[in-house]
Amino acid sequence: MTVKEIAEKLNLKVLSGASGLNNEINYGYASDLLSDVMGNAKSGEVWVTLQTHKNVMAIASLKDLAAVILVKDLQPEADMAAQSEDEGIPVLGTSDDAFTLIGKLYELLKK
Amino acid sequence: MKLFKADLHIHTVLSPCGCLEMSPVNIVQTALNRQLDIIGITDHNSTRQCRQVLEAADETSLKVFTGVEITSREEVHCLAFFEHLYALDAFQHYLDEHLPKIKNNPDLFGYQVVVDKDENILYQEDYLLITGLNKGINEIEQEVRKHGGIFIPAHIDKPKYSLISQLGFIPDDLPVDALELSKHTSTSDFLAIYPKQSASTFIRNSDAHQTEFIGTSYTYYRMSTPCFEEFRMALHHKDGREVIAA
Hints:
The complex is a heterodimer.
Chain A: H1 3-9, E1 13-16, E2 27-30, H2 34-40, E3 45-49, H3 55-62, E4 67-70, H4 78-87, E5 91-93, H5 98-109
Parallel strand pairs in A: 2-3, 3-4, 4-5
Antiparallel strand pairs in A: 1-5
Chain B: E1 2-10, H1 24-33, E2 38-41, H2 50-57, E3 63-71, E4 77-82, H3 85-98, H4 106-109, E5 113-115, E6 121-124, H5 137-146, E7 150-153, H6 163-167, E8 179-181, H7 187-193, E9 202-204, E10 219-223, H8 228-235, E11 242-244
Parallel strand pairs in B: 1-2, 2-3, 8-9
Antiparallel strand pairs in B: 1-10, 3-4, 4-7, 5-6, 10-11
Helix pairs in contact in B: 1-2
């Protein structure tokens, strides 16, 4: 499933990095500890978090993630949004909290 | 130039996790007993106990750096120090403005009180101090600079509440005066894992919450006097001032 399809199905806002909307998502990972994501997320996953620091994009890029979803209407900090644009890794937003969003996302992506 | 022994990360009874014995007088007395020249007072998200520690150290040989251990929105702990009390007060205003208003439950988290040098309770903080500010680490760093402060991410090697645990790696665009290591590692061991940080200054402190830990971890600074500007110079290895690697 592409980032665009997920965004449409879950009514997510595209906050930055629209050039990566055709990235393929194969599964998801949820964590707010960036050290944990660096160690455990896998290529092609969509990452659900509430962290809005620029390091989020560095790690998304390092781990070759498909997209990042920010919960609870959080907005990326300006330099995070800029790096999302540069890298073509979309940052999507939702008003849902993490529990609710991850539940919906799991239904779409479960194997 | 002389060497000064400093433990710059000490909590008082004001921190909810700070032991009741961590009163200004006990802290100062213990620090003197352990041959410390300088201590730093760094309660969680509050500077309100600093004045009383200054008073308790008055007319002793101990120098007190007044500061705070800030929790950022990312839940990174950062030390900040301010030379002047007006700057400390201005930063307290910022803390009051940006700390979420969550009531402390003393049964769960402990009491948050300011005590004077005669151990009278002067103030009780009603809002929980161990939550995170609603400001990101970069904004907090800039605010510290605005008040002429020194900014040092705390115990960066720890697996929780550290720059590395919360943000994965040390952001290269965050201007720091030094990086603090916990007592569980040394500068050389840390650099073996993170060689890119070889240009950084590292300091170590106790992060004491009980008197028994005051001075159990410390750093030597080569300076002419134990004052704030000399300390800043030592952190940046200027004019012969330096940090002796721990």
